[in-house]
Structure prediction request, 754 residues.
Amino acid sequence: MPCKRMLLAWALAAWLPLAMHASAVHAQAAPEAAAPETTDAIAAEAAAPAGDCPAIPLAGADAAAVTVPSAPDAWGGPRTGDEPTLSDRVVRYEIDATLDPDKHTVSGRQKLTWRNRSAQPVCSVYLHLYLNAFEGPGSTFMTELREGNDQFRSGVGTGDGEWGYTRLDKVEQAGQPVQWAFVQPDGGPETDRTVVRLDLPQAVAPGASTTLDIAFFDQLPRVVARSGYYGSFHLVAQWFPKIGVLELPGERGATAPRWNAHEFHAHSEFYADFGEYDVRITVPAGYTVGATGEEVFEDGSDKPVERDGMVTHRFVQDDVHDFAWTADKRYAEPLVGHYEGPGSPRVTVRVLYTPEYENNAQPALDATLASLEYFSRTLGPYPYRTVTVVIPPYGAGEAGGMEYPTFFTASSYPDVAEGTLFRDLLDFVTIHEFGHGYFYGILASNEFEEPMLDEGLNEFWDQRMLTEAGRKVNLSAGWMRKLGIDFKLPVFGYERMAAMTASPADPLGQNSWNRMSGRSYGTVYSRTATAMRDLEAQVGKEALERAFKLYYERWKFRHPSIADFREAMIEGTGQRETVERLFAQQVYGVSKVDDRIASLSSVEVLPQPGYAMRDGKRVELTRADIDKEISDKRKAWAQKHADAKPGEAGPFPYRTVVLVRRAGADVPQQLTVTFADGSKETVEFSGDRPWQRFTWTTPSRAVSAVLDPAGKHYLDANKLDDSRTLDSDASVATRISTQVASLLQAFFAFMVSL
Prediction:
């Protein structure tokens, strides 16, 4: 999901412990047309698990940044390419779904086959029913929105008749009914029904698999967050009962088997096992369908099956951990392109759009093809055969900016001419959502507990791509450009505007829901990107890219943790101290970076009145004596150096004093002082001491002092106080530029507070 704070600012500028509460529900089938409150028959208690199984706990509500690296054989060990499959497939979904586009419902039947990777029998499993986040005010999602997790996407509300939910109609294991109970692993309200525990009639033995037959029914919400409908447009995401992840010892900090199945929080996204998807989607004739994976046809045909005015599309994709789709009768003929690169199959890129946004299709295709090339070259080859890009129609903007394996939604704008603000936005969102195909899709980190590994690292790599392409953020509205005002910012300069540099509230490694505010959650994107940019500036481009390639190669298809990322950065860069300092200060902790030049002076070292030893005798030098001595030496110097410029040199040396203040974390800084004769002095400023004074005695007068001259530290709260000058004339231009810079700093601070 793109940083909505960034999109808003662009547009304005131009743009705890584990608590389980169960509301026991018996697995009883109900008529599809029944209202949600009458379809889940309530039982007195959930049935006890079958067999003699030790209870497997759930990850707690405080789960966040992992500090201990995973075991070398975690998730089956590194994928070398010699294995028969890309991932260690844990689950298989076979789903038949029928869309009613008038009622905005999906009727589904699902075979869910799950393998027990643990060394103990399993008698209970957990499913996510994400759409229940939108069934009413009692969900964790809606509760958090009311209680301060503001700034979620654009804040579109839900009106009467626009709520959504998932209903379980039947769950069976080997023909036996399965009983279930809704639980709240994170201590959310008892009315939250986004996680359900299934108590199995038959235990799943170690290494064995079981198949659950599930009938379910979805009422899609009016598109508000990641999923829903608007008119004939349907984005069907997080729509099927999806099993949680059973983590084993040595995986993401686990020391014993545990289930990872968090409630659907306002700012959290997703985490699931890799597996196989075989999905049949039935829609009325005339509807265009796009989905995760490749469309396959029955019996050698080249088109989907049509019967009685309904068309069934079949999509198949292995080695992914989610599946989403779209259907709309207004979609134009898709725009298609192809990518062929070393190590990748031939990739078909398909862009779906409605007629009013036809001008968005080609830019989205171009940005996707460019992203395929960049990510394949800098991280690793793209392994799938398809990418489907959706341009949301007018009125469905909340469907934009969402990622699913091989399938994502971009954004849509009326004017996307080259060089405009909205073209910058369309390109960025397209690149960002494609990039999730790597950080969310292939690496598959836990977005609940460690969102920086997806949103933050992806944001960094996207902006890195744009920087290498020479792109900048165009903040000039059309009327500004007509007046000759073309105001652009480097992309990482723009990122730091939303990074809460002045008052960071939460560590980058914090989970997605336990944060001070929606604005603080936004730093998952911008502050992570800024921190990674600073790390690259310190260790070097080649070292940083080498480390990211190592991280990707080692952890693709394996669910890495923050500790695993940290170790790859240390090994890949070879600079342990620098990496560990950044993680301690910004990932596991939260530290402000705020260094500044407090004062700069450079004055001649002149003789002073008082007693002095002359020819072995103590004599008093009066003020008159000193004044005469100074005058005589100045005249003699001037006669010998008629062409000398003021400050460059003289009869007396200059003493330069620079006072540097530190009001935050210790980050090694360079201080460079430039003198009138062109010479420079550079020193290191480091340590926890809140100030340090540097002095030089030189022939020439100092003219400027600059902290961080190479621009390595974008996390610094205020870059405007990193330099001082001692110009001989305070020109109007200098004063105005300083004032403009101060105004821009104030403006940016205002923008990120929105």
